[in-house]
Amino acid sequence: MPESVYIHIPFCKSKCKYCSFISFNRMDLEEQYIKALLKEISVRYAGEPLKTLYLGGGTPSLLSKALLSKVVKSFNYKPDAEITLELNPDDADCIKDLKECGINRLSIGSQTFDDNILKIIGRRHSSDDITKAVSAAKSAGLNNISLDLIYGLPLQTKEGLMQDLGKFLKLDIQHISTYGLKIENESFWGRNPAAIPSGIPDEDCQADMYEFINEYLENEGFYRYEISNFARHGFESRHNLNYWNNGEYYGFGAAAHGYINGIRYSNTIDIDEYIKNPVLPVYKHHLSKTEKLEEEIILGFRKKAGINIKKIKKQFGLDFETKYENILKKYSDYIEKTNEGYTLNIHGVLISNIILSEFLES
Ligand code: SF4
């Protein structure tokens, strides 16, 4: 029974140059979209009390209070449910309303404090907006705040990154999600390579930046509970941990993905089609036992807690240490033993693609 829900809100006022998420400048469709979304929820959601709800996008902070409230109220919750909403820093005016709608965790798309870089990458907020958003959140009583940080941005240097991290920490937030810039084909820059600005740090430099972030944040009392996510103890994203624990979840809205009863499914990415028929999944894939094991390994190694070999034995009847003995030996400088299984150390994280592909091929 899924106890987590992801909802996709596919609206953005403008498109960031690096963005490959499904989002459109179509706020004119807001009411029709939410009507379709509520219909999908009423047909598919079986009423389980939720541990987590996550409103992502797109820009869910663009929704009106009345519509957001209807969406949040369409579920039952466990008493301590985590209800997260992704906020664009220049939507800080709505934060009080968000709290009143039941949101208790914010994930703020801050990216960097460098105003010049924010402009280059096409963000619509300024560094001041980030500070104002965090302060508005705290004044509203929202004390579970995550900031996004992108590294490997055009013109970004290690010194600049250090300044960013310092400013993030000064805001006394609880969680930081980091992303290495990757130019996907679907993004503006992917479709228009001539428009890609110069001064993008190369892969080696990105890896250095990642190591630097890791060291800096761990020294400041944040721990890397997942490859890209750092938190103060007790403030890990419970919603995202459910993904990495290979748990079930509903996905509602255009382009949303879900995982229930061993089936991964996703809705249409066409917002008009979704509004016409919000209950027709376009893609359904029943995972084979091998695929389930592969996912368990890939997702498990993303976490600092690592993979749980007892769980693997119970679920797949497989003795992990025997089956992967050679790989565990070959990468003994990169893979560490935990009480429950194995995890990648920082050196392992940096070559995780190579290590994981060996697990999948064996
Ligand atoms: S990065 Fe976020 S805010 Fe920017 S266009 Fe993409 S979804 Fe919208």
Give descriptors for this structure:
362 residues; alpha/beta; TIM Barrel; Arc Repressor Mutant, subunit A; 2 domains; 9-stranded mixed β-sheet; 3-stranded antiparallel β-sheet; 15 strands; binds iron/sulfur cluster
Description:
This protein has 362 residues and is an alpha/beta fold. The protein folds into 2 domains: 4-244, TIM Barrel, CATH 3.20.20; 289-362, Arc Repressor Mutant, subunit A. The protein has helices at residues 30-44, 65-73, 95-101, 115-120, 127-139, 158-170, 188-191, 203-219, 238-244, 271-276, 289-302, 309-316, 320-323, 325-330, 346-350, 352-361; strands at 4-9, 50-57, 77-87, 105-111, 145-151, 175-180, 223-226, 229-231, 250-252, 257-260, 263-266, 283-286, 307-308, 335-337, 341-344. The strands form 3 sheets. Strands 7-8-6-5-4-3-2-1-9 form a 9-stranded mixed β-sheet, sandwiched between helices. A 3-stranded antiparallel β-sheet has the order 10-11-12, with no helix packed on it. Strands 13-15-14 form a 3-stranded antiparallel β-sheet. α2 runs parallel beside α3, α6 (158-170) runs parallel beside α8 (203-219) and α11 runs antiparallel to α16 (352-361). The longest helix is centred in the middle third of the chain and has 17 residues, at 203-219. It is globular. The mean pLDDT is 96. The site of iron/sulfur cluster has 11 residues, from loops.
